[in-house]
């Protein structure tokens, strides 16, 4: 998440409209990450709102030890992980149903615009739909690892720290999630020695 440091400083000085500008500049990225992690548009909207409540409370104390975008990314992931834990507890007590289908805002049109023929467009649309459905069907812990490692590009160590597990656990979850995604998207099971999740 790229954030103009001057905009952060303007927020810290209390300049009129600076906080609104910061939210407008980062809203799409924050919501997209929430949507990927939570696989539910309503929960993603709630999480996005919670992220910006935290930003409003904490921007004055932001010291700049890291880039603001890095800090905002971490806040967003933490809010989503809390939401996932709440959801897991609610399901365990029978108070919640499963999540709704996953979507990648903007990715489908971006992928489809690179194709030229109608058959390529149809194949791309089908692949996007199957990939979204497969990611949404993963268990929450596996989906979180895939989103953070593959889509957000965090290192194994960073994912382990965020999730509060070891790097080995992250690697195992990622391996199993990749095998499940491959099976769900292509309909083929992995040939070489993987164990089921």
Brief characterization of the structure:
The protein contains 9 helices and no strands. By secondary structure, it is an all-alpha fold.
Give the full name of the CATH homologous superfamily of the domain at 1-100.
RNA polymerase sigma factor, region 2, helix turn helix motif
- Total count of helical runs of at least 4 residues: 9
User: What is the tally of beta strands?
Assistant: 0
Major beta sheet summary: none
Low-pLDDT residue spans:
94-112, 192-197
Identify the CATH class of the domain at 1-100. Answer: Mainly Alpha
- Determine the fraction of residues in helical runs and give it as a percent range: over 70%
Q: Terminal Cα separation, in Å?
A: 32 Å
**Percent of residues in beta strands:** under 5%
Q: What is the element string, with H for helices and E for strands?
A: HHHHHHHHH
Average pLDDT level: 78
Classify the secondary structure makeup into a structural class.
mainly alpha
Radius of gyration: 19 Å
Query: Which CATH architecture of the domain at 1-100 would you pick?
Result: Orthogonal Bundle
Principal-axis shape: globular
Q: In CATH terms, what is the fold-level topology of the domain at 1-100?
A: Rna Polymerase Sigma Factor, Chain: A
């Amino acid at each position: 998440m790229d954030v103009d440091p001057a905009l952060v400083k303007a927020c810290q000085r209390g300049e009129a409209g600076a906080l609104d500008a910061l939210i407008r500049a980062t809203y799409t990225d924050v919501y997209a990450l929430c949507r990927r992690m939570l696989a539910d548009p309503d929960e993603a909207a709630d999480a996005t709102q919670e992220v910006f409540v935290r930003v409003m409370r904490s921007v004055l104390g932001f010291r700049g030890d890291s880039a603001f975008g890095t800090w905002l990314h971490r806040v967003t992931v933490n809010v989503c992980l809390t939401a996932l834990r709440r959801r897991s507890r609610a399901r365990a007590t029978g108070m919640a149903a499963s999540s709704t289908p996953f979507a990648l805002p903007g990715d489908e049109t971006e992928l489809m615009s690179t194709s030229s023929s109608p058959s390529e467009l149809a194949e791309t649309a089908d692949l996007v739909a199957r990939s979204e459905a497969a990611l949404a069907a993963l268990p929450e812990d596996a989906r979180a690892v895939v989103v953070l490692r593959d889509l957000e590009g965090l290192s194994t160590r960073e994912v382990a720290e965020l999730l509060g597990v070891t790097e080995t656990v992250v690697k195992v979850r990622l391996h199993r999630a990749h095998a499940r995604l491959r099976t769900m998207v292509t309909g083929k099971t992995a040939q070489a020695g993987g164990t089921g999740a």
